């Protein structure tokens, strides 16, 4: 879905569900990465239900954001111990995760789609 394409079929329940998932992602710093696990589980639950709707890109966006962040987090831990470089990568992935969570929430709030394949989508 093009980022300029508005959501044509509005399902307020689905939209609110996505906003909750984005809010859970946004609370990651305060919950030591527990709420994003809940958000990604909810995304997987809704993935097949929304497969043929405009909300599937948002679900894929949440899932991809989670797994990329987790991978970088796991890679960063040994880098902290070995080189101290892990602190930089952890900071960058934290900022990236927060940006994608806020951006996705803003887009669904505006009734617009996202492109889950882009690493950094700008408004």
UniProtKB/TrEMBL annotation:
Transmembrane intervals: 20-45, 65-98
Keywords: Membrane, Transmembrane, Transmembrane helix
Protein name: Transmembrane protein
Organism for this UniProt entry: Simonsiella muelleri ATCC 29453
């Amino acid at each position: 879905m093009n980022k300029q394409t508005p959501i044509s079929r509005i399902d307020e329940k689905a939209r609110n569900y996505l906003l909750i998932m984005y809010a859970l992602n946004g609370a990651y710093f305060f919950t030591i990465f527990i709420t994003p696990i809940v958000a990604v589980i909810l995304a997987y639950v809704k993935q097949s239900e929304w497969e043929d709707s405009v909300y599937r890109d948002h679900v894929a966006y949440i899932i991809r954001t989670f797994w990329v962040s987790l991978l970088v987090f796991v890679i960063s831990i040994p880098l902290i111990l070995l080189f101290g470089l892990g602190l930089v990568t952890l900071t960058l992935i934290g900022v990236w995760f927060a940006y994608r969570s806020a951006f996705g929430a803003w887009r669904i709030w505006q009734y617009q789609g996202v492109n889950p394949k882009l690493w950094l989508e700008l408004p």
